[in-house]
Amino acid sequence: MLNQIKGLHHVTTMARDADANNRFFTDTLGLRRVKKTVNFDEPSVYHLYYGDEAGTPGSVMTYFPFPHIIRGRPGTGEVGETVFSVPEGSLEFWKQRFAEKGVEGVVSEEAFGEKRLRFTAVDGDHFALVEAKNDARNAWTGGSVAGDEAIRGFAGATLRLRDSGASEELLKFMGYEHADTAKGIKRFVMPGGNGADVIDLQTLPNMPRGELGSGSVHHIAFAVEDRDAQLAVRQSLLDTGYQVTPVIDRDYFFAIYFRTPGGVLFEIATNEPGFDRDEDTAHLGEALKLPSQHEHRRAWLETHLPEIKD
């Protein structure tokens, strides 16, 4: 069993409209945009990162906004819901805020003994806020949500699967422990994790496989401290029979990827070097930052990337 993984690092999703996406996460949810860069493989498309003040691993939601992408079809083999942590007693604030902002799909419920507020973002992607009892992480309060109700980071995510058996074994191998089962959903928790340490498995044997599009999660990333820990995880996964990519430099972290038995794309990402490697923390996410291989295209990209109204 691995002991290097500490919980989630980030979740990356597809979107259609960069400005609408930016507005929802910075204005409606009050997160900080910590990086404005481009897709490594398609630099005419943004890669936008939102999180806490420093973009701490376990707080970062990221998006690829493709202007002409079709809407994704929800299904199995993907992340079905991403869950943010908020303080106890704050859901009424969020319920009122969502009503004022016109947020859709808002539903109050209780699961695993926790109060939660489910909602959808602008591309139909599914989220929830959960009242966490002992989350000591500092929230970003320099934006549109300046009070104690602000989001602390991720609590975790739900994976939709046709069969969960092999994914359960994978999570246990990664260091997660089965904590509870409720309404057919199995909860796995990372002991001593980073706060973003819950993975729920929802088994839907008759649901078709999801089709990637706007609102679909492209991959879910798990955090390790550094490159040595990542290499140890990679070797263990290879030894277990998984096909794992070489280490890829993503500028703000190093990444490896592998496809899970249930079809979900997992990433293992390092906490180093962080989002302040090319911007001062006070100014994160303000300037367009380009991977070095695309810097020569800056003039063209600055005039052709869609406008984001800050």
TrEMBL record:
Show the Pfam families listed in the entry. Glyoxalase
VOC domain segment(s): 7-132, 153-271
* Recorded superkingdom: Bacteria
Database matches in PROSITE patterns: CNMP_BINDING_3, VOC
Domain Cyclic nucleotide-binding span(s) in chain numbering:
77-137
Query: Cross-referenced PANTHER family, in alphabetical order?
Result: RING-CLEAVING DIOXYGENASE MHQE-RELATED
The protein's name is: Glyoxalase family protein
Report the source organism. Answer: Pelagibacterium luteolum
